[in-house]
Amino acid sequence: MSRAAVVAGLGSWVPPTVVSNAELAAQLDTSDEWIRTRTGIRQRHVIEPGSATGDLAVAAGRRALASAGVDGADLVVLATSTPDQPCPATAPEVASRLGLTGVGAFDVAAVCTGFVYALATAAGLLATGVGDSALVIGADTFSTILDPADRTTRAIFGDGAGAVLLRAGEPGELGALNGFVLGSDGTRRELIEVPAGGSRQRSTGRPADPADTYFAMQGKPVFAEAVAMMASSIRTTTERMGWSVAQIDHFVLHQANARILAAVAQRLEVPLERFVSNIERVGNTVAASIPLAMADAAREGRLGAGQRVVLAGFGGGLTWGSTALTWPDLKTV
């Protein structure tokens, strides 16, 4: 029988500094009501000056290892679009700080779909015997790349990290990840981007327009694409699992916007109550979004052993993806 990646540990971390809607309203032309009605967000966490994505990744990774009752892993895969620096990747330092020097460690960049892509990558490596365990972390600090004067993006995004410890096992086990779907559409990359800072802009030899150094997103088309692609990938994943959408106990989607979650639920014709949501407390944490939502739901006792769960994300690239598992009996930390 082929090997599968089995979820054996789960951890999360958000920085202690909380920024409420009221605090944003005092700085920008916005209000608590405006933010809540459009996004469902009441607050978000942001890192302190001098902190970085790697710091959050280490904290979440440590908790995932403790949850699994182990002190190591053969691989570290970090999903992030806000690495500590452009070069080198952040994962090797994260691994070293966790005491995992010498293991395979690398970053995966797929924006808000990053965690699903990282899960699929780690699952493939475990399936082929490259390792017997993998620490998969989603971590982002989008507060560092937002225009301070942009009320829309500053209202939406927060910082955080979530992680799972995967071990090699069998496809039929509780916690085994199966039914992976990954997709992309590079013709629409301009919908979600940071225009400057990469080789294309740098090769011109001209200084970047300051506005192009910040994250930018075209809200309306992103909303439509997110709903369509997540709903489609969820249907494909459930078909591959031999499940119907109606048989899914919980959907843990990328926490982009409360209205997107509601629209996906409507398109799938399933009750919104089955959709895990913590966006009200943490905002859109990009690659950290799905594991943070899983950790919160598990800690609250909402996810129980034997329940059918689907994970799905959508992000820049454009990228999207999903996977499914029957929830294992996990210790939460």
Automatic annotation (TrEMBL):
InterPro entries according to UniProt: ACP_syn_III_C (IPR013747), ACP_syn_III_N (IPR013751), FabH (IPR004655), Thiolase-like (IPR016039)
GO cellular component terms listed in the entry, alphabetical order: cytoplasm
Principal subcellular localization: cytoplasm
ACP-binding: annotated segments: 255-259
Any one GO biological process: fatty acid biosynthetic process
Any Pfam family hit: ACP_syn_III
Pathway(s) annotated for this protein in UniProt: Lipid metabolism; fatty acid biosynthesis
Subcellular location, record wording: Cytoplasm
MF annotations from Gene Ontology: 3-oxoacyl-[acyl-carrier-protein] synthase activity; beta-ketoacyl-acyl-carrier-protein synthase III activity
Swiss-Prot/TrEMBL keywords: Acyltransferase, Cytoplasm, Fatty acid biosynthesis, Fatty acid metabolism, Lipid biosynthesis, Lipid metabolism, Multifunctional enzyme, Transferase
SUPFAM superfamilies assigned: Thiolase-like
Residues of the Beta-ketoacyl-[acyl-carrier-protein] synthase III N-terminal domain: 106-186
Function noted in UniProt: Catalyzes the condensation reaction of fatty acid synthesis by the addition to an acyl acceptor of two carbons from malonyl-ACP. Catalyzes the first condensation reaction which initiates fatty acid synthesis and may therefore play a role in governing the total rate of fatty acid production. Possesses both acetoacetyl-ACP synthase and acetyl transacylase activities. Its substrate specificity determines the biosynthesis of branched-chain and/or straight-chain of fatty acids.
Quaternary organization: Homodimer.
UniProt xrefs under PANTHER family: 3-OXOACYL-[ACYL-CARRIER-PROTEIN] SYNTHASE 3, BETA-KETOACYL-[ACYL-CARRIER-PROTEIN] SYNTHASE III
Name of the protein: Beta-ketoacyl-[acyl-carrier-protein] synthase III
Source species: Kitasatospora kifunensis (Streptomyces kifunensis)
